[in-house]
């Protein structure tokens, strides 16, 4: 993993939220800092810089 992305676990800890809530938000396209793609299983990509900007209230 590169230093520009986070796992669901890492992002959930930063956001202080349950991992499943984060997954659902990404699946429903409600969080602008990552994406969820369904093939056989869900795969997630969370951009660290976009998450940090979103947490600061910056428009991304």
Short summary:
With 60 residues, the chain is α+β, with helices and mostly antiparallel strands.
Helices and strands in order:
Layout: E1 5-6, H1 8-15, H2 19-27, E2 34-38, E3 42-47, H3 48-55
User: How are strands sequenced across the largest beta sheet?
Assistant: 1-3-2
> What is the chain-wise order of helices and strands?
EHHEEH
Instruction: List segments where confidence is low: pLDDT < 50 over at least 5 consecutive residues.
Output: none
How many DSSP H or I helices? Answer: 3
Roughly how many Å is the radius of gyration?
A: 11 Å
What's the assembly state of these chains?
Answer: single chain
Note the overall shape: globular
Supply the helix-strand structural class: alpha+beta
User: Could you describe the largest sheet, including whether it forms a barrel?
Assistant: 3 strands, antiparallel
The average pLDDT value, as a whole number, equals 94
Q: Let me know the number of strands.
A: 3
Instruction: Give the helix level as a range of percent.
Output: 40-55%
Tally of individual domains: 1
């Amino acid at each position: 993993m590169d230093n520009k992305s986070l796992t669901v676990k890492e992002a959930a800890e930063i956001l202080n939220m349950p991992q499943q809530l984060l997954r659902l938000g990404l699946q429903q396209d409600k969080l602008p800092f990552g994406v969820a793609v369904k093939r056989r299983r869900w795969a997630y990509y969370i951009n660290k810089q976009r998450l940090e900007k979103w947490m600061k209230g910056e428009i991304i």
